[in-house]
Each structure stands twice: as C-alpha cells, then as structure tokens.
Design a protein that fits this description.
Distance between the termini: 29 Å
Number of strands: 13
Order of helices and strands: HEEHHEHEEEHHEEHEHEHEHEE
Strand content: 15-25%
Structural class: alpha/beta
Shape: globular
Oligomer: single chain
Length: 266
C-alpha cells in the first residue's frame, strides 16, 4: 500500500514533479537491479545508499520515477534547522500543500531494518484550502511511553510535532486527519493529537484485516480527543469535500459510523 501501482500512474501520465523518499532502490530481482543500475548516474547520486529498499514494488516505482521525461525529482528531506519548506501553492485554485519532511540527520541515523523504520519515512503533507487544513500522515508512527515521554526517535511523529508547531504555532487548529498507519496502536499518539487538534479522522483499513486495524488503543485516543471517525472497513469509499466557503462534508459508500461497532480497549 506504499507505492504499488504508482509505476503505472507514471507510465500513463506525464508527471512533471515527483516527491519521493531519500532512499535508493536495490532490488533482489536481477532484471530490476540491472534496470536500476542503468538509470541516469546523476539522478542515482541524489539518493542515500547506506540503507536501501529491496522490494519489487519500490523498484518499479523508482525506475519509472527516474525515467520520466521532463520531470523534476523532489526528495522528502528537510535540512537540520527546518528552514527548508517544501510547498506547492496554487493561487488559481486557492490551495497550498506543505510537506513535513525528515531531516538528513534522521535519514542518516535511521536504519531501515524493519517495517517501523520504513514507515517512519512516510511522506506527510498538510493541504490547506479555503481556511481548512487536512493532515495526511501515511504510515507514520511513534514511540512514546505511557507518561508521554519519547522512548526512541525511530518513529517520525516526534519531529512532525516539532515541525507542525514551528510552521503553524502551538495553538493552530486543523480539521481532518487521515489517521496514520491504518489506525495502528503505535500511531496517532496523544502528543501528536494534541498538536494537530482535528475534528474528523478517516481510517483506511481493510475489513477483517489480519493486523486488527484499527487497534482499540488508537480508537480510544481518537475518541478522547473528540474525533468524529469514519473507517473504510465500515463505510467503504469515503469522500471528504471542502467547498468554496470552507464547509466540510463527507460522502460515504456505506452509511455507518465508527461508533456503531466500537469496541473499547481491554
């Protein structure tokens, strides 16, 4: 669910800008490895090679991204002082997209030896439109203890909180959260929810999935922060609409709320 089918999108459309992780593809598949090695050397030199991703899905995306003609590659990496501000602004359509990126130091100190570390380089964006802010978190995760103390900096919610406060202030109000990592237990910490202060949460998760997403501990935290929650396992496809005056509405394939099948944590 990270990059699958993005290679097809790049093949089917002329893509002028691609925002992607600062991570080199090193596939185990011999044919794909040859294709990666044959890519433009200057573009390959942009990427960190201390840690790599070996999956076929990432290789297919990586190859097509670096092969796309007339396309600029933007790496989701911030400088250590958080002065880089990757932003897309459309004056014509009145929206802004801001990227919350890991720093070079984070990439250097993070080793992609498990799924948690790979999820920590998820792209995080904030979309602003007509006075509303929507937060998209990918598979972000956190490692806080029960006292709210940071246990490790392997997750990325800790620097997301710092960067969001720097960009928007301590008391800035957000509106809609695409809940991180399908509602996993180690994501959407209280520290993060305190920082973004959204009213609505959308959880993308498959019905009856083997990971038991969303986890009850995540749902408990969202409910404690007064979220109205919508879930794809209960609601099917969910469309969030922000109209020209900033009014937020939702259209769902199935008319069911999260509360209808909410099970409290043990």
């Amino acid at each position: 669910d990270h990059v699958s089918y993005l290679d097809d999108i790049i093949s089917d459309y002329q893509v002028n800008n691609i925002y992607m992780p600062y991570i080199l593809s090193d596939p185990t598949n011999v044919s794909l490895k040859e294709k990666v090695n044959a890519l433009d050397s200057e573009k390959l030199a942009l990427f960190k090679d201390e840690d790599t991703i070996s999956t076929q899905a990432y290789a297919n995306f990586f190859i097509n991204a670096l092969s796309e003609p007339n396309c600029t590659i933007h790496l989701n990496v911030d400088d250590d002082d958080h002065t880089t501000n990757n932003k897309i602004v459309s004056e014509e359509y009145n929206y802004e997209i801001t990227f919350i990126c890991p720093t070079l130091e984070f990439y250097t100190n993070t080793h992609l030896n498990d799924g948690h570390a790979k999820n920590a380089v998820s792209p995080v964006i904030i979309i602003e439109y007509n006075g509303r802010k929507l937060v998209y978190t990918g598979d972000s995760n956190a490692y806080w203890n029960s006292k709210g103390e940071l246990k490790t900096t392997e997750g990325n919610e800790w620097f997301m909180v710092q960067r969001i406060k720097q960009l928007y202030g301590d008391d800035s109000d957000f509106d809609v959260l695409k809940v991180a990592h399908h509602g996993a237990g180690e994501a959407s910490s209280n520290k993060f929810l305190d920082a973004v202060k959204c009213e609505y949460g959308i959880i993308s998760c498959g019905s009856g999935n083997t990971y038991n997403h969303p986890r009850n501990e995540c749902l408990e935290r969202l409910k404690a922060h007064n979220y109205t929650i919508y879930r794809t396992d209960l609601n099917g496809n969910i469309k969030c609409i922000v109209n020209a005056t900033g009014v937020i509405s939702f259209e769902m394939e199935i008319d069911a709320t999260q509360e209808a099948e909410y099970i409290p944590a043990d």
